[in-house]
């Protein structure tokens, strides 16, 4: 479903529950977007998830990120371990089964394969609730972790009534596992007002690039974790450290690799600024000459959508759902884990103002085609309505 299509009818009378195991990346934001949107269409919405998700929902409502007043849905704390733990996993299944017996939703929408597997086991033997699972991530590295992930995918593929996948490769993977009803998920970045001129000027002053002889700024933003592969970006930056002026690499975000990445930058003599977690990413994007997304894998990354909307020249890894977001010309796409290709793409944009301007224009044009939050809610609402209207196979038989 794309922008401009009519919204489906309301969801009055339908109880919908959401289950999240993690709020990492854009997962938590996406769950809250769907919960608020479907509640606004009349559904009785309950969200089960980690306490951090409830705090985020309360903070967003208080900050005016959503509609005025309460969000219109209930939050119930529920923790699901990030790694297989038989005792805690069994407890999570039993707790969810009790919650579902109490709330009796027509649809349970789980996010992530761990949440999806817990939901499938909790619903075993019943056909009163349709199960939707959104698969947000690819299999993790490592043979043991990948094997566990495959097992979870098999449970999801065989027991979910419908699967939403954030990228084409994940959709193909779940079909291969046996899923019969698979659709590409719509995961838009939330709408954000353009930064003020004062905010952009403040960001440039903080970075020390406010003067006429300031170096160009190369910006990356995201969680400092292996998937985002900022280590390859630092190797690329080491290739341009003898340029004059030396481009300033700015990395916004925090995560488990923060100390290691700072150490790598220092060892390689890379001019890098690590900003930690930031809430002024739009201003940082406006202050950047080039935006880089060097990830090993991505679904529909928010930073790519934000860079396109900001009209910034963008260099990104050609992985997962990134090409589906950027189209043929919205970004310069390079192979993952290739510092030479990454450095060459960045320096070409820095050296060729005409190419950079053309890339920025292409990014803005592509941004105009991106879906909005209403499109994601339209997709979910239409799916929920279809599932509750049709006869679903008994999960016990599966």
Describe the protein.
- With 398 residues, the chain is of the alpha/beta class.
- It contains 15 helices and 13 strands.
- The protein has helices at residues 27-40, 51-62, 86-103, 113-122, 143-159, 168-177, 197-207, 230-239, 258-268, 281-287, 302-310, 322-326, 339-351, 353-367, 373-389; strands at residues 15-20, 44-49, 74-77, 107-111, 130-135, 162-165, 182-184, 217-221, 248-252, 272-276, 290-293, 314-317, 332-334.
- Strands 3-2-1-4-5-6-7 form a 7-stranded parallel β-sheet, sandwiched between helices.
- Helix 1 crosses helix 15 and helix 11 crosses helix 14.
- The two termini are 30 Å apart.
Number of strands: 13
Output the strand order for the largest sheet: 3-2-1-4-5-6-7
Broad structural category: alpha/beta
Sheet bearing the most strands, described? 7 strands, parallel
Strand proportion = 15-25%
Helix content estimate: 40-55%
Characteristics:
13 strands; 15 helices; six-stranded parallel sheet; disordered N terminus; alpha/beta; seven-stranded parallel sheet
Topology, element by element:
Layout: E1 15-20, H1 27-40, E2 44-49, H2 51-62, E3 74-77, H3 86-103, E4 107-111, H4 113-122, E5 130-135, H5 143-159, E6 162-165, H6 168-177, E7 182-184, H7 197-207, E8 217-221, H8 230-239, E9 248-252, H9 258-268, E10 272-276, H10 281-287, E11 290-293, H11 302-310, E12 314-317, H12 322-326, E13 332-334, H13 339-351, H14 353-367, H15 373-389
Parallel strand pairs: 1-2, 1-4, 2-3, 4-5, 5-6, 6-7, 8-9, 8-11, 9-10, 11-12, 12-13
Helix pairs in contact: 1-15, 3-4, 4-5, 7-10, 8-9, 8-13, 11-14, 13-14
């Amino acid at each position: 479903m794309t922008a401009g299509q009519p919204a489906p009818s309301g969801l009055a009378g339908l109880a919908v529950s959401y289950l999240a195991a993690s709020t990492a990346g854009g997962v938590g934001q996406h769950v809250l977007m769907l919960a608020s949107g479907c509640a606004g269409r009349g559904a009785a919405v309950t969200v089960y998830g980690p306490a951090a998700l409830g705090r985020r929902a309360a903070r967003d409502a208080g900050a005016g990120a959503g509609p005025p007043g309460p969000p219109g849905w209930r939050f119930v704390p529920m923790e699901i371990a990030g790694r297989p733990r038989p005792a805690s996993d069994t407890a999570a299944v039993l707790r969810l089964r009790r919650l579902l017996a109490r709330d009796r939703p027509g649809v349970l929408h789980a996010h992530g394969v761990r949440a999806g597997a817990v939901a499938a086991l909790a619903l075993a033997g019943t056909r009163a609730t349709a199960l939707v699972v959104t698969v947000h991530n690819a299999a993790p590295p490592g043979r043991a972790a990948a094997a566990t992930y495959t097992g979870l995918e098999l449970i999801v593929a065989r027991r979910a009534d419908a699967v939403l996948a954030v990228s084409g490769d994940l959709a193909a993977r779940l079909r291969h596992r046996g899923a019969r009803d698979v659709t590409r998920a719509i995961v838009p970045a939330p709408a954000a007002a353009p930064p003020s001129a004062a905010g952009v000027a403040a960001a440039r002053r903080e970075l020390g690039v406010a003067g006429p002889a300031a170096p160009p700024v190369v910006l990356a933003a995201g969680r400092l974790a292996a998937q985002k592969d900022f280590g390859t970006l630092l190797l690329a930056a080491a290739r341009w450290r003898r340029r004059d002026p030396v481009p300033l690499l700015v990395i916004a975000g925090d995560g488990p690799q923060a100390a290691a990445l700072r150490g790598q930058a220092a060892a390689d003599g890379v001019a890098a600024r690590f900003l930690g977690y930031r809430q002024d990413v739009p201003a940082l994007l406006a202050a950047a000459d080039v935006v880089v997304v060097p990830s090993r894998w991505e679904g529909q990354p928010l930073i790519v959508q934000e860079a396109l909307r900001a009209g910034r020249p963008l260099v990104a890894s050609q992985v997962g759902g990134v090409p589906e977001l950027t189209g043929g010309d919205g970004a310069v796409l390079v192979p993952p884990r290739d510092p030479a290709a990454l450095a060459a793409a960045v320096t070409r944009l820095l050296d060729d103002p005409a190419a950079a301007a053309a890339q920025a224009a292409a990014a803005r044009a592509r941004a105009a085609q991106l879906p909005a939050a209403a499109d994601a809610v339209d997709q979910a609402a239409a799916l929920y309505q279809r599932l509750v209207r049709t006869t679903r196979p008994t999960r016990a038989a599966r």
